[in-house]
Design goal:
single chain, globular, alpha+beta, 188 residues, 7-stranded mixed sheet, 4 helices
């Protein structure tokens, strides 16, 4: 089962199983008890080494949904230390600008995602654009709060599929998002 998300995320629902080799590798990285940036990088390295293909989801799940991007929960670690989800984006679908409650690592399994990064102004009343990234199939990246404010868009013509690992129990929290930002954007 899946949850369809529009601009505001909803709780992911358990779906297909996550490869055991990938889970074991993530567990090993998390067990090193590094700082959030260190853990994110260690997990990102393991995701890169054990990168599944888009067929980690069934054909129906890979098709996405017209109403908004979908989040498929593959695994939540019993101790709540991490969760693995797969996101599916049809062309034109995007997140709102947001940040996260914990460290994370992601990999693009199919397509090209477009990411815009932002920083809060010192007074917290606006967002300043920092950069734009294009992440293609096979690209892996990691992040850790603070400073992880971004927006993801599928600006292409094909479906984008991403695997995300978050350092929290997404099943319990319902999302990895800490805050949605509806602030003015300054010019770059």
């Amino acid at each position: 089962m899946t949850v369809t998300l529009t601009g505001a995320p909803a709780a992911p629902v358990p779906g297909p199983r996550c490869p055991q080799e990938l889970l074991a590798a993530i567990r090993g990285a998390v067990a090193q008890h590094g700082s959030w940036p260190q853990t994110a990088e260690l997990v990102g390295d393991q995701v890169r080494q054990h990168l599944p293909g888009p067929d980690i989801l069934g054909a129906r799940e890979r098709a996405g949904a017209p109403a908004g991007y979908q989040c498929h929960l593959l695994h939540t670690e019993p101790d709540g230390s991490f969760s693995v989800v797969v996101l599916v984006w049809r062309p034109g679908q995007a997140t709102t600008i947001h940040d996260h409650v914990a460290w994370g690592a992601f990999a693009v399994l199919q397509g090209t995602e477009h990411e815009e990064t932002f920083a809060l102004t010192p007074d917290g009343t606006a967002l300043r654009p920092l950069g734009r990234n294009q992440n293609r199939a096979g690209d892996v990246s990691a992040f850790a709060p603070p400073g992880d404010i971004h927006r993801i868009t599928n600006a292409g013509d094909d479906i984008v599929i991403q695997l995300h690992v978050y350092g929290t129990d997404v099943g319990r929290l319902g999302t990895s998002i800490r805050r949605l930002y509806d602030l003015p954007l300054l010019r770059a």
